[in-house]
C-alpha cells in the first residue's frame, strides 16, 4: 500500500461519549434512547463521536463542505418480558465524505445480584449498514427474552467507513438499570419531606415470607414525626407504610426498610409515589 493510500485510510479510535440518556418508563415497559453523533472531517482527517452538546459546540470548527455527520438514536425497549435493542438514523448532514458502510453492535449485559455485581453478556444485535442503508428514519432492531429480574447494562460499539477513510469507535457501556421480568424499570424515588430513598433490591431474592409486627406502622410514624416533623405532603390516613424489601422476601420491620407511599385508591399528588406502582413492579419480580 502506497503512502497516499495510507493517508486515505484513517483509523481513529474514539470513545462513545454521551451524557444525555432519555428514559421513559411506565408499568407497561421502559424505553431508553441514547443519542450518538458520528462526524468525519475530511480536511482534518479526523473522526469524532460526540454528544449533542459537544457537537453543537464543535461544529463551527468543522469544514462546512468537507464534513459529514450521522446522527443515530440507539434505542432499547423492554416490554412484556422481551427486550429489543437497535438503532434509528435521525439525520445525515454534509455533502462529503459520504458513509459507505457501518457496523453498530448493541449488547445486553446482566447481573443477577446488584448494580455493582459481575455482569455477563445476555445477547447482542449486530447491525451492518451499506451505502443504501443510510436513510433518515430507518433502522434495525433485535429482540431477546428477559425471563428474570436482572440489573441490565447496554454496551455500544460502532464503526463507520467513509468514502475517504474509516472511523472506528471504541465501546462504551451504559449505567445499570433494574428491570423486573416484564421489563418494567424499578422506580427511583425519595420521600419529598424526609429524603428517605427507595432501597434498590438485589435481583436474586427468593420468597421467604414472614408476618410483620403489629407495631411497625406506629413505630415508623413516631420516628418520622420526631425526625422530620409532622408530614406536610400527606396525612397518615392516606399513606401505606411500605416495606422496601417486602415481607414476602423476608424484609424487616426496621425503620431503614420503611417508607410512606400513597395507599391504593388515593390520587397521587405532591410528588409522592403510589404504593400501587411498587406492588405492580414486585408482582413481576420472581
Automatic annotation (TrEMBL):
Top-level taxonomic group: Bacteria
GO MF annotation, one: endonuclease activity
Database matches in InterPro entries: HNH_nuc
This protein's UniProt keywords: Endonuclease, Hydrolase, Nuclease
Annotated protein name in UniProt: HNH endonuclease
Organism of origin: Paenibacillus arenosi
